[in-house]
Design brief:
The complex is a heterodimer of chains A (435) and B (273).
Chain A lengths: L2 H10 L3 H6 L3 H27 L1 H4 L10 H24 L10 H20 L5 H10 L6 H25 L2 H27 L11 H28 L6 H33 L5 H9 L3 H23 L4 H23 L26 H24 L15 E3 L6 E3 L6 H8 L4
Antiparallel strand pairs in A: 1-2
Helix pairs in contact in A: 3-15, 5-6, 5-9, 5-10, 5-14, 5-15, 6-8, 6-15, 8-9, 9-10, 10-11, 10-14, 11-13, 12-13, 13-14
Chain B lengths: L7 H4 L9 H13 L11 E2 L3 H6 L1 H6 L7 E6 L8 H9 L10 E7 L6 E7 L8 H5 L5 E3 L6 E3 L9 H5 L5 E4 L4 E4 L16 H5 L5 E5 L6 H7 L5 E2 L11 E4 L4 H7 L13
Parallel strand pairs in B: 2-11
Antiparallel strand pairs in B: 1-10, 2-9, 3-4, 5-6, 7-8
The chains are: A mainly alpha (435), B alpha+beta (273).
Bound molecules: iron/sulfur cluster (SF4) (2 copies).
Chain lengths: 435, 273
């Protein structure tokens, strides 16, 4: 290592490959598992690409978007959510949220990259996309906006992360703001990709673009709690008073957002039941093919159980939070699946009363589809574990935003404010009631 | 599994009796200004006066947005599900085994004295307000500015399949051979651009259920069928506001044939045999 890389490493809190080497054998094994799965997923995906997706994927003319799209949605929803929740702190100055910023921004980049990995194996001609998205844009297409805005979002997030590492807080804040705006625009456009399709009553309407934003917030809160409590398991020293306070704050926001989504879901179901167009789908969720997905994963693991456990944890019982949010991540994955697939189950000719349109159209993901999904998901897992070690648990120390007039207390790690004419020492004594 | 009971009575064509003459006149005006039979989803059936249509003369013709404005009228009761059209389409356009550009749907009426079956040919409606065209990120699918045919520029297709979901008529599939989505182009590439006047399916249909032509030409069969007085004409899924160019009518009444008198139309044997 030459001098300048050492300097950067120090500034960024980058501990390099050496930190990985010091990891325990168990840690290595889990990381190796994810790395292997990423590799196998990629190989299987490429195999499918060469053989031709229509031989190996179960998507069809009617159900053209399968598990890959739903996994993509899962990843980008989580990424946007991480960006939204963390922006409360490092963009809008909500002090309690500041300590989560670095890990959240890092993970939001990783999640969107994971999403791009997955969609790479869904788009039939990904290489054409790079060309014609640029030279033949259709400005009235939500799909175009979604792709373009998410591209811009990734760029902003990377720049933001760079400035976070560099501790250039005014620029990181500015980039964070752009990233947030573009991310939200991209994300509601993703909702609109679904919401603006005629003939798909389960999706059609303004519900999805709005729901997606709130749902992103919920996913983001859940993801932050999950990755932080997991990081705490990996390295307990990441918790300090400031982080504890941040966990409490994120926990509260997440509880609020889960309640909001429960509210959304109830009305989606109730209105759907009385709609001639939607009731077939709604009934399949309530007591048909999708009832296990719906009741067990969407409702129980995705909302009710985490709501209860997070409440019980009071934001301080990290083991409980870890379990709650871990299960919730699985539940959320199913939630995305249960938006994407059921929306296509009813034939467009159903209302015409023809034989061909009577039955619900079935779909089960194929081996290739599942492996291509795992390619992206295990990439996320691998990058997370590597990041925790190499970036030293995204430790805070000097890596956060300190508002004017404040300083980071060497004792507790929280930000303290000095009153006029007060020295740091006096302020600390006052804050901690030491006389 | 439980399925919804379809209220067939409701699905039925409203018939001309439910449409007041004022509505009819308004509707006709609408039909003249914007093609595609559509009136806020309320009126499923179009009934216009042949005479009135003529009375408005060339004015009317000029208002169709395309010229020639290709369109197809499907006379539903004449379809016997022989699927000769489907075969002809597959052959003409090299459609792979796993795909189709057109198909015949079957509707059974139950609970009536005699169980009745009806066959409904469906294909791309070449919508004037095509959701697929709006949805495509790269303009790989587009509305031909001259003919109004919704066509594909295959090399631009990235295969995102948004158009397949955007289409409310299930008219698209992904063709691995073309590396792009494929759909009906009214046989533009294989026939019309080479000077033919009929599509593969319409020329293969032995009963005359599919009639293809130019909606801007008052002497053309599709113009006459759409603007005749005696029978109702409707489109599929008018509520989506896509302004389709495939029109449906029963086509079993003698009146239609009267209208068509003087128009050479062959009822038996494909391709004018
Ligand atoms: S029927 Fe479908 S494919 Fe044809 S123009 Fe309309 S939306 Fe597009
Ligand atoms: S699949 Fe092809 S034609 Fe269809 S929307 Fe995507 S790029 Fe356009």
């Amino acid at each position: 290592m030459n001098r300048s890389t050492i300097a950067i490493a120090k500034r960024w809190g980058y501990h390099g490959i050496d930190a990985l080497k010091k990891a325990s054998p168990g840690y290595f094994m889990i990381m190796g598992f994810f790395a292997l799965l990423t590799l196998i997923g990629a190989v299987v995906g490429v195999h499918g690409m060469i053989t031709g997706y229509h031989h190996v994927y179960n998507v069809s003319r009617e159900i053209s978007w399968g598990i890959l799209i739903s996994a993509y949605v899962f990843c980008v929803v989580t990424s946007t959510g991480l960006c939204i929740i963390s922006s409360i702190g490092h963009v809008f100055g909500g002090e309690a949220f500041m300590p989560i910023a670095k890990r959240a921004v890092f993970m939001s980049i990783i999640f969107i990259l994971g999403g791009f990995c997955i969609i790479f194996f869904d788009i039939e001609n990904p290489f054409r996309m790079a060309i014609y998205n640029v030279i033949s844009p259709n400005l009235s297409s939500n799909m175009w906006w979604m792709g373009t805005l998410y591209g811009a979002y990734l760029v902003f997030m990377i720049i933001e992360y760079y400035f976070l590492l560099e501790q250039n807080h005014s620029l990181s804040r500015l980039m964070g703001f752009f990233g947030l705006v573009v991310g939200i625009a991209a994300h509601s456009n993703l909702g609109a990709v679904f919401g603006m399709l005629h003939g798909r009553p389960f999706w059609y309407g303004p519900y999805l673009p709005i729901y997606f934003i709130f749902s992103a917030g919920m996913s983001g809160g859940c993801a932050i709690l999950f990755v932080t409590t997991l990081a705490w398991k990996i390295n307990p020293s990441i918790m300090n008073l400031r982080m504890e306070r941040a966990m409490k704050a994120v926990c509260q926001v997440t509880i609020f957002l889960i309640s909001t989504i429960i509210f959304f879901t109830i009305w989606k179901i109730v209105t759907g039941m009385v709609s001639h167009d939607k009731s077939l789908v709604i009934m399949s969720m309530i007591n048909g093919d999708y009832s296990v997905n719906f009741w067990v994963f969407d409702i129980f693991f995705g909302m009710v159980l985490p709501l209860f456990l997070l409440f019980l944890s009071r934001g301080t019982n990290y083991n409980m939070i870890l379990w709650a949010t871990g299960l919730m991540m699985i539940g959320i994955f199913f939630m995305r699946y249960d938006i994407v697939i059921p929306g296509q189950m009813v034939s467009v000719y159903h209302a015409l009363g023809v034989e061909e349109g009577l039955e619900i159209i079935k779909y089960k993901p194929s081996f290739h589809e599942i492996m291509a999904t795992l390619f992206g998901l295990s990439f996320i897992g691998f990058a997370y574990l590597a990041g925790e070690k190499m970036l030293n648990g995204h430790q805070l120390e000097k890596h956060e935003i300190v508002p004017e007039g404040g300083y980071i207390c060497p004792g507790c790690g929280a930000i303290h404010f000095m009153q006029e004419g007060e020295s740091e020492q006096d302020a600390m004594k006052r804050q901690h009631n030491i006389w | 599994m439980n399925f919804l009971k379809i209220d067939l009575e409701r699905l039925k064509n409203e018939g001309t009796s439910t449409v007041t003459s004022k509505e009819r006149r308004n509707f006709l005006k609408l039909g003249l200004a914007i093609t595609g039979v559509y009136a806020g989803g309320k009126i499923l059936s179009l009934s216009s006066t042949f005479g009135v249509a003529h009375a408005s003369g060339t004015d009317f013709v000029e208002k169709y947005p395309y010229n020639p404005h290709y369109s197809m009228v499907i006379r539903q009761s004449l379809c016997i599900d022989c699927e000769k059209c489907v075969d002809a389409c597959n052959k003409t356009n090299h459609v792979p085994k796993y795909g189709y550009r057109t198909r015949i749907l079957t509707r059974k009426y139950q609970g009536q004295l005699d169980k009745k079956v009806e066959f409904i040919p469906v294909l791309c409606n070449h919508c004037n307000d095509a959701p697929c065209v709006r949805a495509c990120p790269t303009k790989a699918t587009y509305k031909d500015a001259v003919t109004g045919i919704v066509r594909m520029n295959s090399k631009k297709c990235i295969g995102c399949k948004t158009c397949m979901l955007a289409c409310p008529y299930d008219a698209r599939y992904f063709s691995a051979e073309r590396h792009a989505v494929d759909k009906c182009d009214f046989c533009w590439e294989e026939r019309l651009s080479k000077g033919e006047t009929q599509t593969g399916c319409s020329s293969a249909c032995p009963t005359g259920a599919r009639t293809f032509g130019n909606l801007t030409d008052p002497n053309n069969i599709v113009f006459k069928l759409v603007h005749q007085l005696e029978e109702s004409v409707w489109v599929l899924r008018p509520e989506d506001g896509t302004k389709p160019n495939i029109f449906y009518m029963k086509g079993n009444m003698l009146s239609v044939d009267n209208i068509l008198k003087g128009q050479k139309f062959i009822y038996s044997g494909p391709s004018g045999s």
